[in-house]
Amino acid sequence: MLSVRFSKDDEQLIRRHAAEIGISVSEFLREAAISKIEDEYDLKIYKEYLENEEYKITRPLDELISELGLENEI
């Protein structure tokens, strides 16, 4: 169980939005929190990917097609 405090304006905004989309405030806040965590995790993984030198290698398309044995498929 968690308890979170909001300003009156924020609380009204959250309650109004939850009602508009037909879910409870608890469900809305849970979904929002989980979504935020997933977004931050995805961003972290993407940044790690960009920093990995192994993924910065490029090669011509015809070389990749040959490597994958797809010459007769295209």
Concise account of the structure shown:
The chain has 74 residues and is mainly alpha-helical.
Envelope shape: elongated
Class from secondary-structure proportions: mainly alpha
**Main sheet, how many strands, which sense, barrel?**
none
Mean pLDDT: 94
Task: Tell me the fraction of residues in β-strands, as a range.
Answer: under 5%
Low-pLDDT residue spans = none
User: Tally the helices: what do you get?
Assistant: 3
Total domains, how many? 1
- Overall strand count: 0
**H/E element sequence:** HHH
Q: Portion of residues in helices? A: 55-70%
Could you walk me through the main structural features you see in this protein, from its secondary elements to its overall organization?
The chain is mainly α. It has one domain (9-67). Helices cover 64% and strands 0% of the residues. Helix 1 packs across helix 2. The longest helix has 27 residues, at 25-51. It is elongated, with a radius of gyration of 23 Å. The termini are far apart. The relative contact order is 0.06. The mean pLDDT is 94.
